[in-house]
User: Fold this.
Amino acid sequence: MRLYEERNQKREIQCGYCHHEGHNKRHCPTMKAHWENNPQVHVTYDHSSLIGIDKTMFPVHYQNYWGDDSAKVQFRSHWQYMKQRFAPKAETKTKKRRKAKCGFCGSTAHNRRNCNKLKNFVYVLKETNKAYRAAFYDKFVEGMGLGAGALVSAHGYDGEAMGIVTSFPTEQIMFTNLLRTWSEYHTRAKMTINLQGNNLKVNLGNDCFRADIYHGDVERFGIWLPMYSNWGRINGVVSPAPNRPTKEWFLGQTPCFEWIVKKRDQMTLVAAFHSIIKEFYPHDNLRTKLGAKCYDHHYPR
Assistant:
């Protein structure tokens, strides 16, 4: 999924106050200088008395669009933040340290390392994904003959044409393919079709099949509905892939769900996955695995 795929990408920090890169507003030297140079507004804000605040606080590119008033607006919008950040604070009693709790389920009795709900949820994800891949194999690989080497009818840059599948993303086929592409949990499964000499990338998760050739009867697609649209690329498989993998091998490909449960809590993940889990999870113990509170919240009777 996208959150996992981009885990090693470095994100450039940009300050929310001066918009320069390399620091955030907590460590912004411009903000601190503006506060120190305007002591007359430390108690009561007075927009007209601000001094030394102009558009030069922004990067050069921003200065083409923002003027001195924009800089003062930034100061005004961050005035309360600066007051809390830089103004002297009265002595306060030391707060008691909060008791540590599990970042996944919220319990104070353990942490993520010893969380049984986390382990149970990883099991749910793996079983859901295995069942999804089994259904995908039956419908598209075995049923349609989709795979590397398949001859397909598709909609290309110059209209309808015949093409051949040159690469098939076996390892990226997961139940998270069905999530919308803007979701950080969406997994891109890009299949490449050589169509009239052009390599066409098709996302097997969203809008990859033409729905209009089914005369608008999209209701019968069920959970696969996100894969069909009027903008889809594939009309159908003309000749099946010559060397399709066995179902046993196909189901043996398992993604790493252990990483994702270390970054998000249970309620957040179940909120994102609950409809697909309900559709594909193959066992009748889902309430036990998720816990009664979580299950009843996402699957009300």
